[in-house]
Amino acid sequence: MEEVIIATKNSGKAKEFERIFQAKGIQVKTLLDFPEIEDVEETGTTFEENAKIKSETIANLLGKMVIADDSGLEIDALDGRPGVYSARYAGQQKNDEDNIDKVLTELKGIPNNERTGRFRCVLAVSQPGKKTVTFAGACEGLILTERRGTNGFGYDPIFFVEAKQKAMAELNPEEKNKISHRAMAIKKLEENFTPNNGAES
Predict the structure, then answer these.
(1) Coil, strand or helix at 181
(2) Pseudo-torsion of CA 76, 132, 52, 186, nearest 10°?
(3) Does the chain have fewer CB atoms within 10 Å around its N or its C terminus?
(4) What would you report as the CA-atom Rg of the chain, rounded to the nearest whole angstrom?
(5) Which residues, other chains included, contact 93 with Cβ-Cβ below 8 Å and sequence gap of 6+?
């Protein structure tokens, strides 16, 4: 495989995929390279459903193999929210800072030992005429009471990785790409990927 299409217009996600795949000599294209493709409406109620909706729709449009991911933050004290609504938790405008503010407000007064949560990612790999397969990854952590660090995107500044004793946004890209939920999902994809046959579940 010389090229993979990642079904995202999120520049932060795109950079993470590029770092991981380009190290293997695989060129990455995203939906930013196909401006004529309109946003795919994510109508699923799980990360897996949304990832499959995106990958299958775009694979059929382009006639090529497409990888789509759906990911987000699950917080135990909030019954798993924001979950599939992570990107637009504070509104349809998808503002990272507003989303963080909403989470911090909802967790106000919750003690540290009850601020557990995880980033979860599901990758869906679709090819025309073949069954879509999915791979999941997760990264456990604690939700901080204030922002730390300037790297990454989304909820990274308030997600504390205990193994590193740092917020996700305090990790450099190389560190993050070894432990992130997306890296874990991509690792599973790599372990089960054969260029001739696609991914095998």
Answers:
(1) helix
(2) 50
(3) C
(4) 17
(5) none
Summary count for the chain: helices (H), strands (E): 5, 9
Give me the catalytic one of 70, 79, 98, 101. Answer: 70
pLDDT tens per residue, range 81-130: 999 999 999 998 889 999 999 999 999 999 999 999 999 999 999 998 89
Cα–Cα distance between 76 and 120 in angstroms, integer? 13
| Domain edges within the chain | 3-199
Helix locations, the chain, DSSP H = 11-22, 47-62, 96-106, 173-179, 181-191
60 contacts 127 by C-beta, under 8 angstroms: no
CA 69 to chain centre: 6
Residues in the chain, overall count: 201
Q: Please confirm, yes or no, whether 70 is among the known catalytic residues.
A: yes
CATH of span 3-199: 3.90.950.10
